[in-house]
């Protein structure tokens, strides 16, 4: 069943490719594959196709589509039991769209949004393994904008601030560098 599922996933990925040369399927263990300056090569040519990695139990670990040496389209990774771990999207090697990750119990680990230049745009959220929200940030083309919140694993607020015209206002979650005791004139 796992082999059939892997085959179906690979076929779906290949069907979504836009280049004629993306029908090549290569395993990450292939010694002909190598990265050079951020581009993936097969032997001496820029790689176009699907790069697949497997766990020792033959479960698919990850699938990545490449066109002309750069990530293109959907990238997926899985836990060893087959549960989806991450889903990311690329255009000409640049992160775009919504990137999502899940914990092994299938609840969200992160949700990030990217613009066409690969910069954070919109909400950026992360969760602890216990399901508690870790981070809720907002970005506008790579720059923090609006309300930003950071939480501890017990749900208490670590940082709670707002960014207006590039300036932060509120509790930014930094530790004090020194201690001041009440009714004392000394700094410790």
Please give a handful of descriptors for the protein shown.
14-stranded mixed beta sheet; mainly beta; 188 residues; 17 strands
Describe this entry's structure for a reader.
The chain is mainly beta. The protein folds into 2 domains: 21-73, no CATH class; 96-181, no CATH class. It is 7% helix and 51% strand. It has 1 helix and 17 strands. The strands form 2 sheets. Strands 1, 5, 6, 7, 8, 9, 10, 11, 12, 13, 14, 15, 16 and 17 form a 14-stranded mixed beta sheet that branches. The N and C termini lie far apart (65 Å). The mean pLDDT is 87. It holds the Pfam family MORN_2. It comes from Aquimarina atlantica. This is Membrane-binding protein.
- Can you summarize the main beta sheet? 14 strands, mixed
Rg, nearest Å: 22 Å
Low-confidence stretches are none
Fraction in helix: under 10%
Number of domains: 2
Q: Strand pairing plus helix content: what structural class?
A: mainly beta
Number of helices: 1
What letter string, H or E per element, gives the SSE order? Answer: HEEEEEEEEEEEEEEEEE
| Mean pLDDT reading | 87
N/C terminus separation: 65 Å
Categorize the overall geometry.
elongated
Protein name: Membrane-binding protein
InterPro entries: MORN_2 (IPR011652)
Organism: Aquimarina atlantica
């Amino acid at each position: 069943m796992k082999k059939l599922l892997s085959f179906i996933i690979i076929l779906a990925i290949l069907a979504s490719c836009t280049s004629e040369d993306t029908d090549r399927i290569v395993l990450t263990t292939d010694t002909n594959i190598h990265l050079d300056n951020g581009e993936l090569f097969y032997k001496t040519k820029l790689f176009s196709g699907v790069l697949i990695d497997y766990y020792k139990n033959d479960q698919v670990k990850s699938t990545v589509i490449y066109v002309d040496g750069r990530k293109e389209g959907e990238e997926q990774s899985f836990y060893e039991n087959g549960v989806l771990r991450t889903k990311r999207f690329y255009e000409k090697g640049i992160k775009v769209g919504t990137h999502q990750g899940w914990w092994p119990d299938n609840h969200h680990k992160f949700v990030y949004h990217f613009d066409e230049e690969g910069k954070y745009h919109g909400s950026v959220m992360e969760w602890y393994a216990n399901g508690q929200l870790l981070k809720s940030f907002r970005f506008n083309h790579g720059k923090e904008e609006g309300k930003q919140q950071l939480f501890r694993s017990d749900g208490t607020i670590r940082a709670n601030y707002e960014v207006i015209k590039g300036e932060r206002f509120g509790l930014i979650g930094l530790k004090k560098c020194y201690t001041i005791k009440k009714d004392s004139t000394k700094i410790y």
